Recover the amino acids of this structure.
């Protein structure tokens, strides 16, 4: 093994240990929901934004806040409401009558980790302001654009069952989220543990287990995770199957209106690398791709009216593709 390979292996191991410490610290406040916490960590090390969807009471907000508490980075929470204005996110220019100048007052988007709580409650103008920060990593105030400090990450929550006073996310913005994670109910044993902990009255105060430099170091280690050519071909097969299912013998022609974009290809590889990093493993397995694929694809496969009539959504199409496309 060369010196560079040894150093890369050490970086991966250190990053894996750091992420494990953060995961354990978050676990002191969040019972179960291991997949949700892991997906938040995937977003953290890849720089990909995460959208959490689930009914109220499943610890979505708690998980993001606990992750922020376990990290020494700047955290801001924005509660989205129908009367929210773009300036409530980005900030605004304050006029100084003494010299006629304007001073930038920065909003809550100028943070490392931003929690957009109930994101689908805000109107289009607010979503547009958020979209610039998510995609360009910058905020424009007046005539000047301000770069956002890395790491910058948006973790959003939304309630799928409530329709009144909500706005569907624009497709362009939905596609900017690397992962859309659906949160389910806890297992019976986990819910019993939740019941027991509630008796403690207060949640434990979490301690920072990693800082900004640790996150950036983990992102650097991510690039050292080896992705074999066969894994890359598998990823390309999955994405191509969302566009031309007939090529793979899948009877989905009438169900898919639009397949996944090249952004899905990139996120599948980076997400698989992140799962390998969480396991402190220097290479990607096919299981890593299959594990992250539903969260990457479910909001990028747009189904037809016929599919909606049959009760088939993007998640179901992704499931069928993962079942049928050959694994290397």
């Amino acid at each position: 093994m060369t010196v560079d390979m040894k150093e890369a292996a050490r970086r991966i191991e250190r990053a894996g240990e750091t992420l494990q410490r953060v995961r354990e610290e978050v676990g002191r406040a969040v019972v179960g929901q291991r997949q949700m916490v892991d997906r938040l960590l995937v977003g953290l090390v890849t720089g990909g934004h995460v959208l959490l969807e689930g009914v109220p009471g499943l610890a979505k907000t708690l998980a993001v806040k606990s992750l922020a508490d376990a990290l020494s980075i700047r955290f801001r929470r924005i509660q989205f409401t129908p009367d929210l204005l773009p300036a409530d996110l980005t900030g605004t220019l304050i006029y100084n009558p003494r010299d006629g100048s304007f001073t930038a007052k920065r909003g809550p988007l100028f943070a490392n980790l931003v929690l957009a709580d109930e994101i689908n409650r805000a109107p289009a103008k607010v979503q547009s302001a958020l979209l610039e920060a998510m995609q360009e990593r910058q905020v424009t105030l007046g005539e000047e654009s301000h770069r956002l400090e890395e790491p910058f990450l948006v973790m959003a929550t939304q309630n799928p069952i409530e329709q009144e006073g909500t706005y569907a996310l624009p497709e362009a913005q939905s596609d900017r989220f690397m992962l859309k994670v659906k949160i389910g109910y806890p297992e019976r044993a986990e819910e019993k543990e939740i019941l027991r902990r509630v008796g403690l009255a207060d949640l434990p105060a979490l301690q920072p287990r990693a800082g900004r430099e640790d996150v950036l170091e983990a992102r650097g280690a991510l690039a050292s995770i080896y992705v074999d050519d066969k894994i890359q071909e598998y990823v390309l097969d999955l994405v191509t199957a969302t566009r031309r299912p007939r090529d793979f013998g899948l009877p989905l022609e009438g169900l898919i209106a639009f397949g996944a974009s090249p952004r899905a290809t990139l996120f599948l590889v980076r997400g698989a690398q992140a799962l390998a990093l969480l396991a402190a493993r220097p290479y990607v397995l096919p299981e890593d791709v299959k594990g992250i694929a539903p969260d990457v694809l479910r909001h990028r496969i747009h189904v037809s009216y016929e599919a909606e009539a049959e009760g088939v959504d993007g998640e179901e199409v992704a499931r069928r593709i993962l079942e049928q496309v050959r694994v290397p």
Notes: The chain has two domains: 3-219, 225-324. The domain at 225-324 is CATH 1.10.8.80 (Helicase, Ruva Protein; domain 3).
